[in-house]
Amino acid sequence: MREAFHDQLDGIFADLSEICGQVEIAVREATKALMTGDIHIADQVISGDKAIDAARERVDDTSFALLSLQQPVAGDLRMIVSALRMVSELERMGDLSVHVAKIARLRVPAVAVPDELRPTMERMGETAEDMVRRVRSIIVDRDVDAAIELGRADEVMDQLRRRSFTELLSTDWHHGVEAAVDIALLGRYYERIADHAVSVANRVVFVVTGEQPARD
Q1: pTM of the prediction?
Q2: What average pLDDT does the structure give for the chain?
Q3: How distant, in Å, are the alpha carbons of 145, 154, 197 from that of 49?
Q4: How far apart are the first and last CA of the chain?
Q5: Cα–Cα distance, 81 to 76 (Å, whole number)
């Protein structure tokens, strides 16, 4: 019975890794839709979010079943509770990707990002995608050192967000209020994806060590 129980626990973390892979694709494709104004890619991101939501429900169901039937304690309980929180964070990252895709879709046939802001927004999208990819490896390997390093890497996203605001508030801005709102929202969406990635990585640290990572 205990062996089957631990197999189920491992299965939950395998599901988390799979969801992370789905989120990585969503982030990448949402950025592609944003930069190209491709309505078909945007629609795929939006419709694909249903699969992430369904996967989240499966993890929830399995976790609650283990809580009620196995009455886990100590490290096992820590794993299940952390998994419930992690899957919620991952689902939210998928939702944020949908928000990016919806802005892209709203501006078709135009492209939502003005030319001078493309380098910054592309870098934000690449950084968010890379952080999700790294989180997947952290989940699979239970890599505490990589999880802590990801928290430091989040500073890159913060710098990009500040840069986007600097460009947005420049006296040279001539793209109007609508574009300004889009850029402000997009910056927030990417920043939040990064924040959720760090949160998931921190929960992996908690699963492995029983302690929350120290904050700088």
Answers
A1: 0.93
A2: 91
A3: 31, 24, 17
A4: 42
A5: 9
